[in-house]
Amino acid sequence: MDERISKYFQDELTKSERVKLLQEAVHDDKLKEQIIEYQNIHTLSGMAPQGTNKDAGRQSLQLFMEKQRRTVRRKYLIKSMGYAAAVAALVVIVWITAVNYVGIPENYIAEQQEFFVPAGQRARLKLPDGTFVWLNAGSTLTYPSVFGKERKVYLQGEGFFDVAKNQDSPFIVSAGSLNIRALGTQFNVFCYPNVEMISTSLIEGAVKVYRPEDEVNGIVLEPNQQLIYNQKSFQMLRMQNKDDLLWKEGIYNFKSERLEEILKKLELYYDVKIIVKSPEILTYRYTGKFRQRDGVAEILRIIQKIHHFKISENEERSIITLYRE
């Protein structure tokens, strides 16, 4: 096993080393499997009480993992559901099994868990409080193994939250320079690094969006409202099309969108660089729905049939070039 994996879970890698390991795992199936296996064993054993109870808990958990290897092969999970979906299923197993086998000790210190979704994938996971989170491609969610008086998570990328109700413990999403506070509700947050825009779309319930240093002057959203923050000011809109949230089901929806904006999203979702050598291509508009699993090249080929541009691919460098002759 790659020694970096154990250092990753012991928090002994630098931030750049952690990012490099996760990026390598996207293209290395063996490394992916090792990370999944270590993640589950590490998390399960870490939830056991101290002393002899911990040893007993570890033995039970190891038996459980052995049973999982026999009954559900990871290769099958990865092939049938996709890597990110497999990880999501295993994360849920981690939580349920830990409760069933060893319980949660009263003096347990909540460790931070980091969940990363590779490019071209999506995932759903269940948090310790019962909240469900869907994560889009290239997203990272950081959350504690056990919540305290407040339920705070950190998002980079895009996530849809179906928050478990708990009047005594508000749920807070830290997304870049904003916080989104909720008690029990459904909402979507878009907050990718290097994108100078954060958006929150509310489906049901209510959320309050605010800068961490100025919660008093936060903005409360009502259902079907979308709040966009461009690092300088807020803009409140009505949600125009709920189909934009179909990414949770593996569908990307574009409605009369400029190709320039579509390409920006594809770069985020598939971790590729798209170069446009003919500027007029960027002004094209397109309406359509695509399956995430089709991949960026197939999506561009479908759009190409309507707008008739050329495509050149450099798979080794993950660069796609669009141009017109």
TrEMBL record:
Residues 252-320 form the Protein FecR C-terminal domain. Pfam families: FecR, FecR_C. The keyword Iron does not apply. Signal peptide: none annotated. The chain crosses the membrane at residues 76-98. Keywords: Membrane, Transmembrane, Transmembrane helix. Residues 118-208 form the FecR protein domain. InterPro entries: FecR (IPR006860), FecR_C (IPR032508), Ferrdict_sens_TM (IPR012373). It comes from the Bacteria. PANTHER family: PERIPLASMIC SIGNAL SENSOR AND SIGMA FACTOR ACTIVATOR FECR-RELATED, PROTEIN FECR. This is Ferric-dicitrate binding protein FerR (Iron transport regulator). It comes from Parabacteroides faecis.
